[in-house]
Amino acid sequence: MFEHIERVPGDAILGLIEAFKKDTNPRKVDLGVGVYRDAHGNTPVLKSVKAAEERLLEQEETKSYIGSHGDPAYGNAILSLVLGEGSPLLTDKRASATQSPGGTGALRLAADFIRTNLPGKAIWMSNPTWPNHHGIFDAAGIERHSYPYVSASNTLDFDGMMDSLGRIPEGDIVLLHACCHNPSGFDLDKQQWQQVLNVVKQRNLMPLIDFAYQGFGDGLDEDAYGVRLLAEQLDEVIITSSCSKNFGLYRERTGCLILVAKNEEQMNNVRSQVAIVARENYSNPPSHGAAVVSTILGDEALRGMWLEEVDDMRGRINQLRSGFVDAMAPHGLAEKFDFIKQQRGMFSYTGLSRDQVERLRNDYSIYMVSSGRANVAGLSSDVLEYVAQAIADVSD
Ligand code: PMP
Fold first, then answer.
1. pTM of the entire structure?
2. Residue 11: pLDDT over 90
3. Is the ipTM of this complex over 0.95?
4. Catalytically annotated residues
5. Which of 58, 100, 133, 280 has its CA 20 to 30 A from that of 159?
6. At 385, is the pLDDT very low, low, confident or very high (cuts 50, 70, 90)?
7. Which residues, including other chains, have CB under 8 Å from residue 352's CB and lie 6 or more apart?
8. 324-343, pLDDT tens digit by residue?
9. Residue list, ligand 1 pocket, CB within 6 Å
10. For ligand 1, what atom is nearest to the CA of residue 133?
C-alpha cells in the first residue's frame, strides 16, 4: 500500500542546514536557522534553566501523568507573564491556560478548538507569515486566507492590512503576531494596535495572537502591549505562547494556549473543550520544560537571573541590528538598510532578492532563506564587515 506514496521535498530550512554543514569555507555565516545564537554561534542552555534543572532533579518525586491542562503552577506563571502581573483578567478569572508541547502545540490546540467549537469560521493570516501557520491550520481542516502585511518595497503594509481586515466576514478568526513578526521583523506600534482593536471590534472578529518571542523585541512587558490591549478590551481572545526562545527551551516543547472568555463560567466551558482537544492529540503535555519555567518564575533569585539573560539576548540582537547598519555605511548603504534597526526580533526581511540570496550563498557562503529572511542573531561583530561587504557586492 505504500507503493504509490511519493517523497516530498524536506523543509527548505533543513536543506539550508545541510548545505551549511557541508560548506568548507571557513568564513561561512549561517543566517538561516530560527534559533537564537550567542556571540560564538552557540545556542546554550540558559544558566537559570540549568539551575532550575538541578533543583528539579533533586526534588522531582513522580513521573505520573500531569493532566491535560498541565501543571497549574506553570499555567498561572504564564498567565502573569503574558497578561501582566495583577491583570484584571486574572482577578476576574476570565483566562484559562493549557500547557502545550511548544507554541506549535498551542497553535494546533487552538486550530482543533476552533474547528470543533467555531465551525465554519475561516482564519486570516498575514502575508507572509511563519510557514507552519499554513500547515497547522490546513491539517486541522480550517479554511485559510491571507491579509497583506509587507509591501513590494519591503515596508509594513499597514494600510493594506487594515483595508483587508475591514472586509473579513464577521466572526472569522484573525491571526496576529504579538511581536517580532516572523519572517519580516515588522511590528505594529501602539497606535496601529489600537486601530487593529477597532476593526476587530467593528467586524466582530476573533483574534488569535501568536506570542512566540516575548522579550526578544523591546522587553517582556513592552512586547505584550498588543496582547494585553486586545485581551483587556475584548470579551474573547485566543493567545498561543511559547517558551522556546525566551527560555531557550526549544527541544523541551514548552508552550501554552490561553483562552480569554467573557466571564468565569464561559472560561470554564471553553477550558473543558480544550481538555478534550489536548486528550485527543497527545493526552498530556510533556512536563520537563514547563517545570523548569515555573521553577524559574516562582523563585526570586532564578527569576532575576532569567530576566538578565532575556535582556542579554534582546540586547545582543538589537545591537547587531545597529551594528549591521553601521557596517553598511562605508558602502553608502546605511540609509537603504536603516529599516533593519526598526525591525524587531530575530528575523529581518532584508529586501534582498532570491537571486541576491543565491549569490551570497554561492560566492560568499552566507546562508539565508530564499525569501531574503535573515536571522540577525546569526551575525556577530567578527563577521559584520564581511557580510556588509558581500551584501554591497551583490547589491551592485
Ligand atoms: N510561532 C512563530 C511565529 C514561530 O516563529 C515559532 C517558532 N519558530 C512558533 C510559533 C513555534 O515555536 P515552538 O513550537 O518551537 O515553541
1. 0.97
2. no
3. yes
4. 130, 210, 245
5. 133
6. very high
7. 360, 368, 372, 391, 394, 395
8. 999 999 999 999 999 999 99
9. 34, 102-104, 130, 177, 182, 210, 212, 242, 244, 250, 255
10. 1
